[in-house]
Each structure stands twice: as C-alpha cells, then as structure tokens.
C-alpha cells in the first residue's frame, strides 16, 4: 500500500472473481457503477472466500523474493565498494545472515551477493496483471526474482523480458548453534559478530569469502566446485577471531560506527559487555554494565559519540550508557512503554532522536534531551521515576514490534516490522491533506480511511513471521526484510 499523499499508485485491494452466472447478468445490465477503491487493512478488513488480494506492481520500483534453506531471524546489509548513493538498475547487494535450523549442527552463517537485480514488472510503466490469467502465478514468481538456496546451491533468479537474470552467489560458514542476531562491522564489513543461542558471541572474518563472491561471474550453484575440489555450496569451517560466553543467551548486539572494532552485547540476564579491540587482532571483553532489571533486548551505539550507547529491555525501560561508567546509566526512561521494549534505533541524521518498539505493537519517538539522568540501583533509582514524554507515537501494529530502523537518507523517515506480518514505512513530516487526496482520486487512488495514520507512507505485506528489516545505506529507499518464509528486497516507488 502506498500513501496517496506521496504517490499515485493503487494500494492493495481485495477483488472478487465473478461467477459465470454473474458475468451473464452483467452483460444484460447497462454500464456498471464505478465505486471508489478502498484501502484493505490487514487484521481489520476481512477477505471473503471468493476474493483474493492483489497488489499494484506500480507501487514498487522493484520487488525480489529469495530464501535460504532455513529460516533466518537476523541479517545485516554489508557495505560494498560500489559507491553511493546509487539509483540506477540493476543493483548488486551484499548480505550476511544466520540460520535457525532443525538441529544445531545444520546451522551456518551465509555471506550473499545478489547481482543484476532489475525492476521486473514493477515501476511506473508496469503492465497490469490479469487475475484470470492462468499463467499469472508463474509469471509473478519469475519476475519477482524468487530464488531458493538448497544443498546444491541456488538457481538463477529469472528477470523480466529484456533484463538479464539476477544471480545468486553465496558462501557458508558452519555454526554449531542457532543464530539469534548478526551484525557487520561498519569499518570492515567482512567482520561479523554472531549472537548464538548457546550463549556465545563470536566474531567471524568473512572478508576472503566476500572477495570470492565479488569475483564470481556465474551463480554459485553453476560453479560450486572451487580450486582443489572445494565445494563452495557446502558450509566451511572458519576459526573465529574472538568469542565470549555470556551467562545466558541474548539478542542485543551492535558495533560502534565511530570507534572501529568496538562492540556491545547484552544478554537475557540483564548484563551488557563492551568489547574493545586489542593488539594482535584480538578483543578484550570488559566487565558487565548493570542497571536493567530484566533481559536486554537491543543495543544501539551513538552515531556521533564513541563511548555512548543505548539499550532497552523487558523492564520497559530505555537507557543511555557511557562505557567509562559501568555502575549506572547516564540517562533513563524507566517507563518508556507499557510492555517489554523489544527494539530501538538511533537516528543518524537527527542524533538526539531515538525510536523504540514494544510488545504491545506501540512505536514511540523520543527526544533524548528530555531524558532524566541516573536511574541505576540504589539512590539513583528515584531519578528515573518520571518517564519523559515521547515526541510521537504510532499504534498501528496489532502485535509485537520485531524491528525498527531510521532511514539513513531521510531523518524524518523510519520503518517498522511486527508479528502482524506488516512492514510499515513512516514519515514524521507528513500531514493529512484532504484536498490532495481528492485530487488524486480520479487517477485510481484508494480512499484513505480516517483512522489510517497520516504518517504511514507505505505498507508492505506478504511475509509470514516478520523478524527484521534494514535500509540499504548506499541505495536510497531500498529495504531488505527477513521472515520465517524467507527474504524480501524491495523499493517503494514513492520513496
């Protein structure tokens, strides 16, 4: 769904296929009345048995779907050497992801290169799809770029007529545990931190694997055997650069964008550890930062200060820390939400703004300048009694928020994903304009419900069990998301 205030595409809507009898009756009638299209709202509006949902391909500049052979709870987009900002199709994207396999030994970390990603049938000149076309499903699959990485590697992703097919390249590193979260070091993208469900955080250097992917001309499946008979389509053993065992498993993990090699990891027993790069390519893990009263769910480093990071947790708080003082946080919003705070994101364009998402589906925007100081145990606890007021709040999601991230190119935009299987893009600068909506109506735009938030810029659906999303920092507007049924890579035409 695309907000008509910033675009002209039709949002997704339910269409009923008329029966043969109804078609005969329609032929006897005069010209049928034309009704204004309406926005279909997931979780609110029902779909009848004889209806099916269709989306308008002009709402996207591109849309690709792909998957590895196990679900991935987490991934990261790797910064590449192709420059940016870049907007000309076809695109090339590098990713790192970690699996949640049926058994521990089947897990791996995958480094991916998706090349020649075209527009397919999407864009302003997209041809309409005939829902009665028996071959439409197959065409959608091909043109959307569906791909599946099995044991022997991935096939080529087919493109639209006139476009070269997209290609799928990968290398796998064996893991002995499920991957809860994975993050790439901004200054050295090949180095990734992996939070495992065995309570260990490992640092893996996949720089050589990325170099192989960049040089590979054929899809990995078509050229699986490397020099010396090495099978590129099989997981390989790679000794970690460093590792640390927490007292329990966790999910909170982030690299500093200011200080190369500085990492923070938080676990389910309310402890946060800061990793410092040391001589000889090693890392020293410091003592625990304590202050949270429950599981630490997410961590974000300040985009401008090398010693400052934020955290959130099931104690419903958001806290700001300084690495030079472990005993208590500097700033605290004790009652940031009415339920567990799952995720946070620090705005890199407006550095005093922070976004948070909670278990009740609520997203809140914070001005860090309003946070109370202190909030640690003992005498400092009283300073956190009064939580600061949030700048903005979105109550659209109907289940727990699983991911939130500010747009790296536009300080007023952010995206969120939730367990209601919806990915929403928000623009805080938007306001409802009835006159503009009325002017766009004749062009086929749907009428926006009054209860639809004016700041909702775009709505992406179609994935089940959404887990995480990221904006591409070098391709403006491009978003990648992961779910229980695979990945989506898309760019909305109004961004």
Automatic annotation (TrEMBL):
Compositional bias of kind Low complexity: 219-233
Taxonomy, superkingdom: Eukaryota
Keywords (A to Z) from UniProt: Nucleus, Repeat, WD repeat
Residue ranges constituting the Histone-binding protein RBBP4-like N-terminal domain according to the UniProt record: 50-114
Gene Ontology process terms (BP): ribosome biogenesis
Amino acid composition bias (Acidic residues), ranges on this chain: 130-154
Pfam family, one: WD40
GO cellular component terms, semicolon-separated: nucleolus
Record field: compositional bias (Basic residues): 1-20
Positions of the UniProt region annotated as Disordered: 1-35, 122-163, 219-245
Subcellular location: Nucleus
WD repeats: 289-324, 334-370, 394-428
PANTHER family reported in the protein's UniProt record: GLUTAMATE-RICH WD REPEAT-CONTAINING PROTEIN 1
Family from the record: Belongs to the WD repeat RBAP46/RBAP48/MSI1 family.
Listed name of the protein: Glutamate-rich WD repeat-containing protein 1
Biological source species: Chlamydomonas reinhardtii (Chlamydomonas smithii)
């Amino acid at each position: 769904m695309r907000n008509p205030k910033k675009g002209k595409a039709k949002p997704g809507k339910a269409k009923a296929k008329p029966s043969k009898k109804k078609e005969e009756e329609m032929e006897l009638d005069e010209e049928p009345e034309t009704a204004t299209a309406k926005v279909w709202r997931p979780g609110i509006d029902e779909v009848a048995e004889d209806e099916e949902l269709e989306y308008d391909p002009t709402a996207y500049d591109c849309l690709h779907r792909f998957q590895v052979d196990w679900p991935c709870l987490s991934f990261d987009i790797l910064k590449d050497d192709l420059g940016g900002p870049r907007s000309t199709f076809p695109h090339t994207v590098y990713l790192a992801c970690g699996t949640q396999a049926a058994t521990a030994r089947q897990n791996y970390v995958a480094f991916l290169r998706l090349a020649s990603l075209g527009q397919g049938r999407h864009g302003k000149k997209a041809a309409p799809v005939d829902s009665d076309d028996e071959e439409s499903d197959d065409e959608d699959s091909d043109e959307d770029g569906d791909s599946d990485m099995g044991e022997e590697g991935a096939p080529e992703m087919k493109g639209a007529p006139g476009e070269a097919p997209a290609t799928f390249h990968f290398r796998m590193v064996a893991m002995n545990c499920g991957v809860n979260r994975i993050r790439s070091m901004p200054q050295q993208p090949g180095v990734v931190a992996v939070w495992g469900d065995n309570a260990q955080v490992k640092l893996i250097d996949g720089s050589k694997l990325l170099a192989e992917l960049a040089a590979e001309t054929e899809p990995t499946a078509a050229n699986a055997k490397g020099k010396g008979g090495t099978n590129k389509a099989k997981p390989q053993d790679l000794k970690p650069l460093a590792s640390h065992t927490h007292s329990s498993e966790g999910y909170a993990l982030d690299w500093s964008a200011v200080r190369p090699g500085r990492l923070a990891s938080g676990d389910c027993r309310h402890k946060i550890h800061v990793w410092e790069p040391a001589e000889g390519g090693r890392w020293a893990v410091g003592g625990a930062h304590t202050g949270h009263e429950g599981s630490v769910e997410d961590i974000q480093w300040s985009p401008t200060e090398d010693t400052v990071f934020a955290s959130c947790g099931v104690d419903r708080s958001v806290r700001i820390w300084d690495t030079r003082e472990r005993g208590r946080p500097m700033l605290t919003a004790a009652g940031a939400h009415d339920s567990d705070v799952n995720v946070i994101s620090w705005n890199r364009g407006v550095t005093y703004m922070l976004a948070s998402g909670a278990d009740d589906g609520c997203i809140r925007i914070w001005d860090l300048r309003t946070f109370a100081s202190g909030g640690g145990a003992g005498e400092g606890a009283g300073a956190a009694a009064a939580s600061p007021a949030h700048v903005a709040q979105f109550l659209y999601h109907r289940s727990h928020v699983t991911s939130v991230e500010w747009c790296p190119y536009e300080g007023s935009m952010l995206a969120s994903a939730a367990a209601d299987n919806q990915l929403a893009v928000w623009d805080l600068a938007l306001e409802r304009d009835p006159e503009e909506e009325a002017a766009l109506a004749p062009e086929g735009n749907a009428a926006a419900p009054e209860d639809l938030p004016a700041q909702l810029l775009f709505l992406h659906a179609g994935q089940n069990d959404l887990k995480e999303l990221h904006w591409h920092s070098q391709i403006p507007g491009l978003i990648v998301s992961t779910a229980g049924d695979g990945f989506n890579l898309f760019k909305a035409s109004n961004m």
